[in-house]
Request: fold
Amino acid sequence: MGFVKENGRTIPVADKVFALSGRAKAAIAAKGKDAVVNATVGALLDDNGDLVVMSSVAEAIRTLTPADYAEYAPITGTPAFKEAVVKALFGNYEPSGHINLCVTPGGTGSITSVIQNYSSYGDSVLTHDWCWANYKNIAVSQGRKLKTFRFFNEDGGFDAADLEKQLNELAAVQDQVVLMINTPAHNPTGYSLSLEDWDAMIDVINRTACKVVLFLDIAYIDYAGEEDEVRAFVPKLANLGDHVLTIFGYSASKTLTAYGMRLGAIVCMAKKEEDAEEFRRAAEYAARSTWSNCNRSAMVVMGKIYADPELRAKVDEERRVYRDMLLERGRIFEKTLNDNGVKCVPFRAGFFVTIACDDPAEVGRKLEEQDIFCLALAKGIRVSIASISKEKCVKCAEAIAALLK
Ligand SMILES: Cc1ncc(COP(=O)(O)O)c(C=O)c1O
Reply:
């Protein structure tokens, strides 16, 4: 007899990812790290298997004063942090419309906030079928459902037609839909919407008969490629109709290699000032009633980095080196897979590559027998290339191809 109320959630006995990575760590302890491929970790590790921590960020952290971490922060974030988020998010692009933002505990908090404030109890929130599993947990925890559209059509392209079909189904029963899109360097596939995909998606949204809140989860943007190129979609957002509100989920976890500092933001780009003001009220209320204030010291660090051109250049340069390391791992993994006659789900960049297969749990089990640890999803195997060296990318891709051919 327990006391917990499930409330529509399915609370697992153990978190699947943590259980899997626990087994990988046990294998490393028993056989040594060279013998084991631990491709389960959602953080960037160097070729030695150590967590990448940017020294320039660590340097900024060391300048914190006791008051920086002792004092409460303003509920929506410190002014310097807010300025920093706008710079980090838009880069060299000028956002159109009225910007307002609120600090959140990581990108995760921004997802909680957008669902809480822009959908009703019992509503369905729409996202792509390949998606971060936590989307469903966050939706269901708040009494919402998660509906999906097919991300890729038979030709491996963005399935705008299915997006339209699923959006229309919701538009028939809801007055507003939250549409969550994770791009660029999507988790778990590594796909990035092309500019043509953006045009197609914007056309579909503009034809939708209900209000749409377009939530763009850009958690991996700084590892997706060259800074301007990965933000080239920003001007296109001005083409969205008046029935659309654009909201970004920003995360400093990967951008600053600061996963543990729990820093992110929800950022609205509204056509009308009143919608931006309404956003501020609602985001502030959601924050106050869930996590309250966020980590002040993390905000101070980010504020310092983006206010100091020299420090920012150091951080950007350090990240660029790691980004290129990650991009190279992705290229090597995909090439090895292709050379061995297997294709992955369309991949462009990022922390993960996914290979679709019929019985992912069984494939995952067979890989584990070879001391290769990857996450079995409902429709495929997710490999964290962020956490394994180039050599292990080759080994892992070969092993997967041998099982799937
Ligand atoms: C797709 C996606 N969005 C958002 C997040 C949020 O990360 P955090 O809360 O650490 O910023 C993650 C983390 O893994 C993710 O994979």
Summary: The pocket of pyridoxal-5'-phosphate is lined by residues 42, 106-108, 132, 182, 187, 217, 219, 251, 253, 259, 264 (CB under 6 Å).
